[in-house]
Amino acid sequence: MNTTLAIAIALLAGLAMAVQTPTNGSLGVLCAVERSSVVNFLGGWLLLALLVAFAGTGDLALAAHAPWWQLLGGAYGIYIVLAVSAATPVLGVALTLMAVMFGQLTAGMVIDTLGLLDVARLPFSPLRAAGCLAVAVGIAFVYVSRWKLGKAAAVGRAAVSEAAVRKIAAGDAAVDEVAIGETAAGEARQGDASARNVAGRRGDAARAVRYLLLVLAAGVVSSMQSPTNTALSRHVGSLEASFVNFSVGLVIACVVLAVRCVRRGEKPVPPRSVLRRTRPWQYVGGLYGVVIVIAAILATPAIGVGLLMACEMLGQLAGGMVIDGLGLLRTPKVRLDGWRLGGVAWIALGIVLVTLARL
Questions:
Q1: Higher local confidence (pLDDT), 255 or 124
Q2: Three-state SS annotation for 133-193
Q3: Whole-number Cα distances in Å, 113 to 81, 116, 128, 197, 302
Q4: Is pLDDT above 90 for 186?
Q5: Whole-angstrom Cα distance, residue 231 to residue 72?
Q6: Mean pLDDT over residues 185-207, rounded?
Q7: pLDDT on residue 68
């Protein structure tokens, strides 16, 4: 496979990630992340079972003779989902995203340079270094965009609260007493929560560091998943390696869900009232996952792990801008800013430089 086609496939994987994230996320909000993960892996597993049965060209039985580490692709996927879900409430979306991307970038370049996980070794040249630096700058731009967005949202909430207080002080008869009470109660709860959050951040910095390391490791693991599945595909075939990935992930996802249900006294299937609120499109995250895994298996041998990670970042950010800008998939509509556009431009420049270094 030539480099141009491999980059296009990697960008497609990034676009699939951009759609998969809000798809699984919206289902996770309704049914819990653990149930959403099971649905994601089960959907992908069923699709791949059909593809292997009717279009597979490899030998799935050879997976029993593959090195143990080549069977861990699905485990990496589950770790990424759980780590990001656990860290985001503590670190915030911006810092979590930046940490994962930084882990992906650095680990991907290390894997390429040292030839780890059966990846062809790529010498680390000044041009590749410049490309890595450009991608890092792009990640920083994305972080600033997320941070400014969160700050603007906080200012907006404060302005709304201040307007309500002014109406109350002026004795505006149009202000409903119940609404006033709810506003005051909400403000009190938000104030208490904010105070607790500030105190928690100051008094538990070590906890934040632990979660930061957790998501950095998620980025590293993310960069390991593609070469792991690619190495397995050399033994059993591309579709078959993807099937193994989803099989392992499905088993672990079911175990995680079972632990949650036992600890909380819940049933594996959510109540009917919750299921009625879901929509068919929320159950197809596994389809996007299949595209991501197969695309990575096909592209990794041609462009390496580092360039694959950069292309996936670009596709994910570009797709995410469209989803945010139009408010698709039940996401809040977000106005695009220059920081995010600049981040995409820097990452695109990094991809160009790394690609030139391979010529």
A1: 255
A2: HHHHHHHHHHHHHHHHHHHHHHHHHHHHHHHHHHHHHCCCCCCCHHHHHHHHHHHHHHHHH
A3: 27, 8, 10, 42, 15
A4: no
A5: 11
A6: 54
A7: 94
Residue with tokens 């980059």: 7
**Pairwise CA distance, residues 345 & 336, whole Å:** 14
Other Cβ atoms within 10 Å of 69 Cβ, number:
13
The span from the CA of 171 to the CA of 148, in Å, is: 35
Q: Calculate the alpha carbon distances from 16 to 1, 53, 284, 302 in Å.
A: 21, 24, 11, 20
Two tokens, residue 65: 């003779």
Q: Is 265 exposed, middle or buried (0-12, 13-18, 19+ CB in 10 A)?
A: exposed
- The three-point CA angle 221-223-228 to 5° equals 85
Q: Which of 307, 287, 316, 291 is nearest to 355 (CA)?
A: 307
pTM score, whole prediction: 0.80
Cβ contacts of residue 231 below 8 Å, gap of 6+?
Answer: 67, 70, 117, 118
Answer for the pair 34, 266: CB distance below 8 angstroms, yes or no. Answer: no
Report residue 302 as tokens. Answer: 């041609």
Distance CA 97, CA 83 (A): 12
State how far the Cα of 169 lies from the Cα of 172, in Å rounded to an integer.
8
